[in-house]
Specification:
single chain, 15 helices, six-stranded antiparallel beta sheet, alpha+beta, seven-stranded antiparallel beta sheet
């Protein structure tokens, strides 16, 4: 493997006009994100000086709301910066996938950003580019990233040509768009604009052209009509035109008030994004190092219960040459390739070599219904289908219902090598991934009775309270549970038990 400084590289995670970001392993086994500039830019003394400032700024900022710098060499032939690896989507990616955040999540976000700016300003710096794509929603809270255009307070040295503006237009402060001297209060304005985006899906100023946008930021009123009333008292002061009228980050924390601790601080759709990224990251690491040489420890951000991934899932991801992880802790956030796209490379993975586990013709409902675990008040199946051969697979189905309106359905579908494109395992995997919906479905890789599962929450009253898709080698299982006795927050155990009994019963035939 290639070395960058003391770090063994695992995979290129993403690259752009200024450089690339790679996933690396430190000598002590820690995982790091290494930002390395392009060789041709390294010859530009102006760019190298800017990169050196980024390294210095990143080292000066300490705290739990930014990513720690592990090591750096701005004077290397190709300069690099290694930071703590923190999986998590950027706020902009989360909004794209899941829509605006609920009020409590925005309040938590506001507190995290205020803490981050406290750390930045305490170091005597101004971020100057706080915006949704530079905010990570990590599993344990907020991280602010990208110190590429950071500036020391009072330092007005130009780092671009005369007249150029550094920053992102929609989130700039009035003094920034007017080219005036910047102070830490400019970051607070950007924080307020970011919060508006978080709770409404739109920035507070949204003119059709950049000149009009700059005019509105400098002289117009922000659009706060869709901001929840409970958040206006936090956001509106941040967007004051006069920097002196804006709260400091510490004063903002007083406006926010205490935030309740939570083991899962973000909405479920965001947690799903984080979880899928961890799966992809684990696959890349194991693909690069091999199961025999891969470090035993998982990234610090990965909980113990997520540290083992099923080999079929790893194999499905590992066929892709390079996958970018959302929200790296250095440089610009990169976009994750959707997991569903990753598995199109199945022909190069271990699934292409897996033998069928389940026989071509699965048992009928009547043959296994006495072994399927359903609540006793539902009685015997009220309906059954199969085995039915359709589109290259064969399925059977059982359904149960009672007079109170509860209904449960289980379907098992077997795919066979030789009856479709690829092995039975490949076909089952492709079928399983059709059910995946970014920002909605939630992967479950710790079922214990099958290779993988996927939960789909209800969108409306017409959807089942719990819907679980399961894949085990060449079989796909679907279990749906609904009814007054099984609300969405109280049906997972019944759903899981039935799915487990289906896998066991079909496998024993």
């Amino acid at each position: 493997m290639e070395q960058i400084g003391p770090f063994r590289t695992v995979s290129v995670l993403g690259q752009g006009g200024m450089g690339r970001v790679v996933l690396g392993v430190a000598p002590d086994g820690r995982y790091v994100a290494v930002k390395q500039v392009h060789a041709e830019l390294a010859e530009d003394e102006g760019f190298r000086a800017r990169f050196r400032r980024e390294v210095d700024a990143s080292r000066r900022v300490a705290g739990g709301y930014t990513a720690a710098v592990i090591d750096a060499d701005p004077d290397a032939e190709t300069p690099w910066l290694a930071s703590q690896f923190v999986p998590g989507p950027s706020l902009s990616q989360a909004l794209e996938a899941a829509g605006p955040l609920p009020e409590e999540a925005v309040r938590r976000l506001a507190a995290g950003l205020a803490h981050a700016l406290t750390d930045v300003h305490r170091a005597g710096l101004i971020h100057r580019d706080l915006k949704p794509s530079n905010v990570l929603l990590a599993e344990d809270g907020v991280r602010v990233i990208d110190f590429g255009i950071v500036r020391a307070v009072g330092d007005q040295t130009r780092i671009t040509h005369t007249g150029a503006l550094m920053g992102s237009p929609a989130f700039m402060s009035p003094e920034q768009v007017q080219g005036k001297e910047l102070t830490p209060a400019g970051d607070v304005f950007s924080l307020g604009a970011t919060l508006v985006m978080a709770c409404t899906g739109k920035p507070p100023f949204a003119a059709g052209s950049v000149p009009r946008l700059f005019h509105d930021i400098a002289y117009g009123e922000p659009d706060l009509s869709a901001v929840p009333p409970g958040l206006r008292g936090i956001i509106e002061p941040c967007l004051a035109k006069d920097p002196a009228d804006r709260p400091t980050p510490q004063e903002l924390l007083e406006l926010i008030g205490p935030v309740e601790p939570s083991a899962r601080p973000w909405p479920e759709a965001v947690n799903t994004l984080i979880h899928d990224q961890l799966v992809v990251t684990g696959a890349l690491l194991r693909q690069a190092t091999g199961p025999e040489t891969a470090p035993e420890t998982a990234p610090a951000a990965v909980p113990v219960w997520r540290r083992r991934w099923p080999r079929p899932v790893i194999a499905a991801v590992a066929g892709v040459a390079a996958v970018a992880i959302v929200g790296l802790t250095v440089g610009r956030p990169y976009v994750v390739e959707e997991y569903r796209e990753i598995v199109t490379e199945l022909r190069t993975t271990g699934l292409a070599k897996q033998q069928d586990k389940y026989r071509t013709t699965p048992p009928s409902c009547g043959e296994v219904s006495d072994k399927l675990r359903v609540p006793s008040d539902l009685g015997p199946p009220s309906g059954g289908t199969g085995p039915v051969e359709k589109y290259g697979s064969t399925y059977s189905r059982c359904s149960w219902s009672n007079r109170t309106g509860d209904a449960i359905e289980a379907e098992w579908k077997v795919f066979s090598t030789g009856k479709g494109e690829g092995t039975g395992a490949e076909q089952a995997k492709k079928y399983h991934e059709v059910m995946w919906e970014r920002g909605r479905t939630r992967r479950d890789l710790d079922l214990g009775f099958a290779d993988e599962g996927m939960w789909r929450p209800p969108k409306d009253n017409e959807d089942p309270s719990c819907l679980l898709y399961v894949r085990d080698v060449n079989m796909a299982v679907r279990v749906a549970v609904t009814g007054p006795h099984y609300p969405s927050d109280g049906c997972e155990a019944v759903t899981r038990d039935l799915a487990a009994s289906v896998v066991k019963s079909v496998g024993s035939r």
